[in-house]
Structure prediction request, 223 residues.
Amino acid sequence: MTLCLAFDVYGTLIDPSDLTRQLRQTLGDGAEEFYLRWRDKQLEYSFRRGLMGAYVDFARCTREALVFTCASTAAPFDARAQERLLDAWAHLPAFADSAAGLQRLQQRGARLYAFSNGSQAAVAALLEQAGLADHFAEVVSVEAVRSFKPAPSVYRHLLSRTRSPAEATWLVSSNPFDVLGAQHAGLRCAWVRRSDRAQFDPWGIAPDLQVASLLELAERLAD
Prediction:
């Protein structure tokens, strides 16, 4: 049975923390804290909207989270500066191991999919500019079911697009909530621990694999 791997994009393949470089020009040492608040609020808004059944494009969650974070921290970003920060999401770099890890997995016969909260068009363009697009059979976006991870419907949608049984489908993500959501839907899961500070939720549930990089993932799956 062909191995099917679905990769989260933001935080797993693509490094959104690169935004701190741009933030540092204005905020100095406060850049990382601002980024983390923005990112947490972005995800919180997607969770809320998923629960409410009030779907909007993920880009709107990102915009509204930025407005909130600027207001709550009194950050000196006017409307033009905020637009520049939002535009930076379309030009984020891949993690250093992403391309090589994906290539190695392809060489071993796995089918690869990108699976994201972002819109299909936005994610496809992001992967293209980061040099990763050619590794994937398809970009699968939650917009088709108008909800967000970790709603069960989005993982069912993934399985319908890949036409792969849950037991042969792996979700690869750096986000513990995504891993837990996929496990709840019956998929196998690999947690990519991108930072030594990252912690997995203490729910008494562990990912099938924990790795530090996509290169390690390729080695572990080969074993």
User: Anything to note?
Assistant: The beta strands are 4-7, 111-116, 138-141, 169-173, 188-192, 209-211. The CA atoms of residues 180 and 204 lie 11 Å apart.
